[in-house]
Amino acid sequence: MAIQVPSDFRRVIVAASVGNIIEWYDFYIFGSLAAVLSVKFFEQSHPVAALLSTIALFTAGFLIRPLGAFLFGWMGDRVGRKYTFLITLTGMGLGTGAIGLIPTYQSIGLTAAFILFGLRMIQGLCLGGEYGGAITYVAEHVPDDRRGYYTGWLQTSPTLGIVVSLAVIILTRTWFGNEAFNQWAWRVPFLLSFLLVAIAIYIRLQLQETPIFQEIKARGQMTMNPWKEAFLSSNIKYILIATVVLIGQGVVWYSGQFWALYFLQQVSKVDAVTSAYIVGAALLIATPSLIFFGWLSDHIGRKSVILGGMLLAAITYYPLYLWLGSVTHPGNINYPVAVFIIFILVCYVGMVYGPVGAFLAEFFPGRIRYTSVSVPYHIGNGWGGGLVPFITSAAFAATGSIGYALIYPIVVPAVCFVLAVFLMPETRRTRIWEQIEARTAA
């Protein structure tokens, strides 16, 4: 008897997305408050060095993510999707909330930075196990012919997580005032994580395990060693191909969203609240592009949409960022044009990111899907994309040149585009619901 797509899969998508938004909020609140954290946790005789140290800590949370993917991927393929990403969600919430409780550098010296580093590592490890669980969970609930569209809804969660983090910062600054915010109220967005994660855990506890995983388990098709099957078999070549695609995607994601915020604050010298308003408005307007391009990939293919986004980003980043700089001089900001430019940048994100969840779920077999999806995703986004804020900010600080700052965001997607043209397969016709039946028949 064939397994069937569950009738309540839309509720599953909403529940998984809400939890994912909160987890990404936790991760990005750190980057959104980098300027404040640099003052609170590092010695201030060299403010630029302190800011870069904070951005380096932000980046370190990305670099540890593949290890989290490696560890929690094993658990997801052996224990189950649902309980694994409940664990990652809990760890993320506790790690983020605890940042709001750390004494500052002024109180305990360099120990404050070490504690901050430790909590950032917890965040990175937990996020490394989150995405593979969330995308696998949703992909294993939705119809094969609309996987791009429905996973596109989940793909909006990182962008909305940034929006929520910016909104919380704006509200907190407005409520308490800039002076109080800079003194102590910067802790509020972190402490709020305790409440948000409690809500997310409650929502996820209502969900069931995925029907595909249950069927794999019932038919005795579970892997005994996900690491061996994923990395010490012919599957490794698919891991490497996916990593190439995800590095290009990850760099476009962070260059189009997160560095836009850093650009306004560091290059154009726009104040924190105004820059948050501009980026937040653009993100909200452009977020539907992730769903649209996920839907489009159901009709014309994952490959053409994803690679199209990489190519457009590589070709147009330099003129777009020059244009953004010209319309965001402090005291003379053209708000509609600034929002429009960042809207374009985020549409590139929609192209590369909207379909990529469906691509990954279709590219790997169900018995090792959690591990195989998680590791290349977090190498690409954690290492490739996660380095964008540090490399671009350091390059600009050293040279004062937008061109030098954009070398990494331009060259990496361009190289990945060329490689992926030859290496990346089209997966949209893959039927993951039928793979289990075929394996049993064989």
If you had to describe this structure to a student in words, what would you say it looks like?
This protein is an all-alpha fold and 442 residues long. It has a single domain (9-202, 224-441), classed as Up-down Bundle (Growth Hormone, Chain: A), CATH 1.20.1250. It is built from 24 helices and two strands. Strands 1-2 form a two-stranded antiparallel sheet. Strand 1 and strand 2 (332-333) form a beta hairpin.
- Most strands sheet: 2 strands, antiparallel
Q: Which class of secondary structure composition applies to the elements?
A: mainly alpha
- Rounded to an integer in angstroms, the radius of gyration calculated over CA atoms is 21 Å
The general outline is: globular
**What name does the CATH topology carry?**
Growth Hormone, Chain: A
The CATH homologous superfamily is termed MFS general substrate transporter like domains
Report the span from N to C terminus: 15 Å
Number of domains: 1
Average pLDDT taken over every residue: 88
Unreliably modeled segments: 437-442
Give the topology string: H per helix, E per strand.
HHHHHHHHHHHHHHHHHEEHHHHHHH
The helix tally amounts to: 24
Instruction: Strand order, main sheet: write it out.
Output: 1-2
Strand content: under 5%
Count all strands and give the number. Answer: 2
* Level-2 CATH architecture: Up-down Bundle
- Give the CATH level 1 class: Mainly Alpha
Helix content: over 70%
